[in-house]
Amino acid sequence: MKKTYAFLILISSFTSFSQTQTEMNQQAYDEFNKSDKKLNEVYSKIKSIYKTDTLFLQKLKSSQLAWIQFRDAELEMKFPPYTNKNYGSIHPICRAQFLQELTEKRIKTLQNWVAGTEEGDACNGSIKIIEQIDPRYMGKATIEENGSIWLTGNMKRDHRIFGYKHKDLHSEKMILLSIFTNEVENNPFNCKYGAYYDTSGMDNINLKYISTEDNFIKVAILKNKEKLDEVYMLKKWFEFENK
Predict the structure, then answer these.
(1) Do 11 and 96 fall within a single domain?
(2) Residues of the signal sequence (predicted)?
């Protein structure tokens, strides 16, 4: 009786482990599929933004097909199908994580065509300058009647709003609001007042509209209601409430 009971416990434990491993495998592939879906969304968005640039679209398609081949070849290089080696039950997770890593790198590359570049970039190639990006794909910030500025991140609309020290796109970048992770994490542009996804996570910092000057708006940077500085932001990224 004791042997039978022990055997049942062993079978139960094995089944539980198998289910857990299966769930872990599925979770890993779910994460990869999310990245793959995001990549397809970025790719489609680029096709819409650059729909009149037929030569670029041809090269984009060729590049994407080549990247898929590269991705698959990288996977085979990382995990060759040895006949005399078993990678173990965790192997599906390893494959999914590696695929996700490659996909996220590709997304980061393609996002350059969505975000646009600043005027004067001599190496922009086929990437449009920010002013040429269709407003339909732009996530705009709202200026309330009292001058307060707020922006909520929207994955279907992109935003990349710098606050410049002067009314000049080549002047020092003082603050950034961006939908792109690689532009926010670790503040790669070294903005004095930080880089944020939207106004909800700005560490007690608030933005307030002062005036419109040519293609810019002048904005006050406030912390605990005290003004830290004034910056200039391109007015194309803003809309007034109730207008």
Answers:
(1) yes
(2) 1-18
- What per-residue confidence (pLDDT) applies to 133? 72
Query: By the 8 A CB rule, do 206 and 148 touch?
Result: yes
Q: Which of 134, 154, 111, 142 has its CA nearest to residue 209? A: 142
Q: Quick one: what percent of the chain has pLDDT higher than 70?
A: 87
pLDDT given for residue 143 in this prediction: 94
Residue 159 lies in a domain: yes
Residue 239 main-chain phi, psi, to 5 deg:
-140, 145
The CA distance from 175 to 164, in Å, is 7
pLDDT at 46: 92
CA nearest to 234, candidates 182, 191, 171, 192: 171
Output the pLDDT for position 222. 95
Query: What's the one-letter identity of residue 140?
Result: K
* DSSP code for 80: -
State how far the Cα of 161 lies from the Cα of 179, in Å rounded to an integer: 9
- Tell me how far apart the alpha carbons of residues 175 and 168 are, in angstroms, rounded to a whole number: 14
